[in-house]
Amino acid sequence: MQSGTDQRSYHHGNLRTALLDAGLELARTGGPAAVLLRTASRQAGVSHNAAYRHFANQEDFVAAVAEQCMTQLGLLMIERIDGVTASDPAVRARMKLGALGRAYVEFALAEPGWFRTAFSAVRPHSSAVGAGSDRVSPYVLLGARLDELVAVGELAPERRPGAEYAAWSGVHGLSSLLLDGPLRELPEPEIDKALQIVFNILDRGLLRA
Amino acid sequence: MQSGTDQRSYHHGNLRTALLDAGLELARTGGPAAVLLRTASRQAGVSHNAAYRHFANQEDFVAAVAEQCMTQLGLLMIERIDGVTASDPAVRARMKLGALGRAYVEFALAEPGWFRTAFSAVRPHSSAVGAGSDRVSPYVLLGARLDELVAVGELAPERRPGAEYAAWSGVHGLSSLLLDGPLRELPEPEIDKALQIVFNILDRGLLRA
DNA sequence: AACCGGATGTTGGCAGTGCCAACATTGACG
DNA sequence: CGTCAATGTTGGCACTGCCAACATCCGGTT
């Protein structure tokens, strides 16, 4: 995957990917504000302005990098979900939802630059929804968990519509507040407590007793 | 509030406030990325670099503007809370919490620039908490509502600690997702539905039945 | 095989920004 | 009345986004 600095010829050959790689690295350490076209071009071993052959402008570039960040979140979610191995279907479904939520907050705290970037871009008309990478779309992943909960009887069908709104809001809000809100720099044990409380509320409010 | 362009003398006399006013206006229309020192200085009728006598750097300036944005949010909250006039104390307390939450989302949707700016800054060590403007701090306002709910018996005392985490996360997460997340451009009626669901979950999970 | 056109990358330039250094003005306080 | 520190200005450098003109090369056509 390392494109390195092997510019053998005039044309790069894989510049778009190289730029996205560089952008992902920039986002990781500096957040969305650090995703610069010139810096990414330099890092890709190419002169400035070359990037304009692949991205309309900086906003477009950041949006593309943001999509990658969102994918990273989805990948961690999948990893954590697949780590759940309970045998009972109902228990497993609940635990998978919990794993998804914990993965969300874990990602935000471990990779704040990626997390902030993922939610910083404003695609004019997001073609991300409905694209081919739905397999790792966090939104789709959450929906699948909720569907499963209905299937095993843990979530009342009449509560299913719009259940994403509540679940997603809870974990996303907590993550945001821990990073950039009044809960910033909350001590570690208190973070765990906050996690417990949010999940407990969602459990009691959403699922069957 | 308009400080105008009355630079009668060499010294402005009230530059810091004028810069903050300009910054607030910039944030309103363009979000945190539009809060620039040179632009604000120009708008204040002063030359660039004058701002450095009042703010260490851009980050410091944006953080100060962000505090103003947070205050705007607090002011709207107070306005909406004061609009609740139910006579029964228990009912009133619940309605006030609801009004607070609705004000939060209302603010985010009506003033996205301010909302994004309020949560974009990273004060090295936030002196905002504990400062003199606690009267309008959204965090403090929420705490007061929860305390009241305990006082009137609608919130079990053992559930009070950490209740902010859940309530705040719910409304903040929903607001964020509606602005910059997958719920962006959700049609109006669906927004109301999402609001209902989130509040319903919080009600069922937090308060007494 | 020669050729040509479009895709891709480069150089140069302009406007805007953050921030540093040196200088100017003035109000406040002795 | 004088001095000085606070406040504001001018000039400059480095960096960025983006536009225009030019260079190179890959791929398909004849």
What does the model show?
The structure is a homodimer of 209-residue chains. In chain A, helix 1 (15-30) crosses helix 5 (112-118). The first copy, chain A, has 209 residues and is mainly α. Chain A contains 8 helices and no strands. The radius of gyration of chain A is 20 Å and the shape is elongated. The first copy, chain A, binds a DNA duplex (30 and 30 nucleotides) through helix 2.
Structural class of chain A: mainly alpha
Q: Which consecutive residue ranges of chain A, at least 5 long each, have pLDDT under 50?
A: 1-7, 125-130
What's the pLDDT, averaged over the residues of chain A?
91
Largest pleated sheet of chain A: none
Task: Considering the chains and any ligands shown, give keywords for the structure.
homodimer; disordered N terminus; DNA-binding; elongated; mainly alpha; 209 residues
